[in-house]
Design goal:
Length: 464
C-alpha cells in the first residue's frame, strides 16, 4: 500500500453553488479529460485536481483504503454549509476486480468538487495547506479548473463523436467480426479471439456440468484504436446523456456507464441494484407486439435467465445480511430498460446494524460483497480460479468497485461494467462479460458481449 499524503491536516470548505440547469448542469463541468466523475440523471459529483492518492493491491485493498480514509478524516477540519451526502471531504476511487491483480486500486482526494443532488448544488474546496479557505477562494479555484465557467451545451457538443464519419477496418492482431461504421477506428480482439473466447465459454459450461460450480461470469476485451484521438470528457458527456438510468463514472482513464449498483450508503441505509439476465433490445426489432411484451416473454419468462438472476441476488443478500438489521428485496425481478439491452434487475434495501458501536463503512461493505455472482460466479472461489484460467487476461479495474465516499460515511459504489480503460490518447480497451450457466450457448454469449460493448462503442463514435 502506498500513499502520497503529507502529514498535514485536511481542511475542507463546502458552499452552495449557483448552477444554472439551462447551461447544462453537471455535464457542463465535464470539460477536462482528467476529471473525476460520478453522475446519474441530474445528480452527481465532479472532481478536479489531486491532493492525495492511496494505492494498493491484494486481498486487503478495501480494508487498507478504509483505514487510510478514516485516518484522513479523523482530524479533518470540515466547514460544510449543506451537510448532505457528497458534501465535505470526498474521495473518488476504483478498485481492481481481482485480489491477485497487479492493477493498482486507488482512492483519489481531489482539490475541488462540484456536486448536485436533487436540485441543490455545491462546491467543495479541499486543502492540506495551512491557508484559510474562503468562498471567494473556492470559486476562484473552480475557475482555474473550468476557465470559462459553465460552457454552453452547444460548445460542449463540438467534439461530439456522433459528428465524425469514416470507414472502419481491422487492425493488426485479430480483427473482430462485427460490422462497424461511424468514426474512423479499428477494433481488434484483446486477449482472446472470438473463437477462443467461445471455446472458453464452452469449457466453462463443461465445468458447470461436473457440478463444481453453478455459475461463472466470463469476460473478454477488445482494443479500439482511434486515429483522431480520444477525449475522456467527451466520452463521459456522451454516456451521461445517453445512459441516464446508469451511473456514469470516470476515474483515472477508467470510463463507463454502469447499470449495476454494488452498494450505496446514505446514513444507515444501504441499497444495491443486482442485475443478471440480459436481452439485446435489437432482438426485438421486427417482432410482432410491443418490445416490452417481448422482453417479458423472452427475458422474464426464461428459466435460464431467472436462474442466473436468482444466483446473483442470493449472493448479494447472503453477504449483506451480517451487516444488516433489516433487509428487503423485490420478490420478483423487474425489467430494467437501457438503450442497448434489457436486464432482469432487483433492488435491495437494508438498514445497517451497529457492529461494536459502529455502522459499517462503505469500504467494509464492499470488502464483504465483492465480487458478487453478477461478475464472478458461485461458489466465488471456484469461479474466481476458473476466470483466471479461462479468460487469459487481467481484468484490471473492469468489474471492480468504482465510486466515491464522503467523510460522514456516505458513498456510492457501482460495479465498473459497460466501460473501458483509455490506455493512451488513441487507444481504448473495452471489456464485457456474461453470466454462464449450464444452459449457456457460446454464440449467444458472444453476441451478448457485443450488446454490452455498445454504450462504449457509441460514446467513442463507433456504431456497431
Ligand atoms: C458482466 C457484465 O454484466 C453482468 C451484469 C448484468 C448482467 C449480466 C448478464 O446477464 O450476464 C452480467 O452478470 C458486463 O456487463 O460485463
Amino acid at each position: 500500500m502506498t500513499s502520497t499524503l503529507r502529514t498535514s491536516t485536511l481542511k475542507t470548505l463546502t458552499v452552495p453553488l449557483d448552477v444554472d440547469s439551462a447551461s447544462g448542469g453537471l455535464p457542463s463541468f465535464l470539460v477536462r479529460d482528467d476529471v473525476l466523475c460520478w453522475s446519474r440523471r441530474e445528480n452527481g459529483l465532479v472532481g478536479f485536481g489531486e491532493l492525495a492518492r492511496f494505492t494498493a493491491t491484494g486481498p486487503d485493498r478495501f480494508l487498507e483504503a478504509d483505514i487510510w480514509w478514516r485516518h484522513l478524516i479523523l482530524e479533518a477540519e470540515i466547514s460544510d454549509a449543506l451537510e448532505i451526502p457528497g458534501t465535505g471531504p470526498v474521495a473518488f476511487g476504483s478498485f481492481a476486480f481481482s485480489k491477485t491483480s497487479p492493477h493498482l486500486s486507488r482512492l483519489i482526494l481531489p482539490e475541488i468538487v462540484v456536486g448536485i443532488r436533487d436540485g441543490r448544488a455545491w462546491l467543495t474546496q479541499l486543502t492540506l495547506d495551512d491557508a484559510e479557505l474562503t468562498e471567494a477562494g473556492a470559486l476562484a479555484a473552480l475557475r482555474r479548473w473550468v476557465p470559462s465557467g459553465n460552457p454552453a451545451p452547444a460548445e460542449l457538443a463540438t467534439d461530439s463523436p456522433a459528428t465524425a464519419d469514416a470507414a472502419v477496418g481491422p487492425q493488426g492482431g485479430t480483427a473482430v467480426g462485427h460490422a462497424l461504421s461511424g468514426r474512423q477506428a479499428t477494433l481488434a480482439s484483446g486477449s482472446l479471439s472470438e473463437a477462443d473466447w467461445m471455446q472458453a465459454v464452452a469449457d466453462g459450461v463443461a465445468e458447470i456440468r461436473t457440478g463444481k460450480l453453478e455459475k461463472l461470469v466470463l469476460a473478454r476485451d477488445i482494443l479500439a484504436t482511434l486515429p483522431d484521438g480520444v477525449r475522456a470528457s467527451g466520452v463521459l458527456r456522451e454516456l451521461a446523456a445517453r445512459y441516464r438510468e446508469c451511473w456514469t463514472y470516470g476515474v483515472d482513464g477508467l470510463v463507463g456507464a454502469t447499470p449495476e449498483m454494488l452498494i450505496q450508503v446514505e446514513g444507515r441505509t444501504a441499497q444495491a441494484r443486482v442485475l443478471a439476465g440480459t436481452l439485446d433490445r435489437r432482438d426485438a426489432e421486427g417482432v410482432d407486439g410491443s418490445p416490452m411484451a417481448y422482453a417479458e416473454r423472452v427475458l422474464a419468462g426464461s428459466e435460464k435467465q431467472r436462474h442466473e438472476h436468482e444466483i446473483a441476488i442470493q449472493s448479494l443478500t447472503t453477504q449483506l445480511a451480517p451487516f444488516s438489521e433489516a433487509m428487503n428485496a423485490h420478490s420478483e425481478p423487474f425489467i430494467l430498460e437501457l438503450p442497448n439491452v434489457w436486464h432482469l434487475a432487483s433492488d435491495v434495501k437494508a438498514e445497517l446494524a451497529d457492529i461494536e458501536g459502529h455502522v459499517p463503512t462503505c469500504l467494509a461493505l464492499i470488502n464483504a460483497l465483492h465480487p458478487t455472482a453478477a461478475v464472478c460466479g458461485t461458489p466465488t472461489l471456484v469461479a474466481g480460479a476458473l476466470i483466471r484460467r479461462l479468460e487469459h487476461m487481467d481484468r484490471g479495474p473492469y468489474a471492480g468497485p468504482v465510486g466515491w465516499l464522503d467523510g460522514a460515511g456516505n458513498g456510492e459504489w457501482g460495479i465498473a461494467l459497460r466501460g473501458a480503460v483509455i490506455e493512451d490518447s488513441h487507444t481504448v480497451r473495452l471489456y464485457a462479460g456474461c453470466g454462464v450457466v449450464e444452459g449457456s450457448l457460446p454464440e449467444a454469449e458472444l453476441a451478448e458481449t457485443w450488446a454490452k460493448f455498445r454504450p462504449m462503442l457509441e460514446s467513442l463514435g463507433i456504431r456497431s
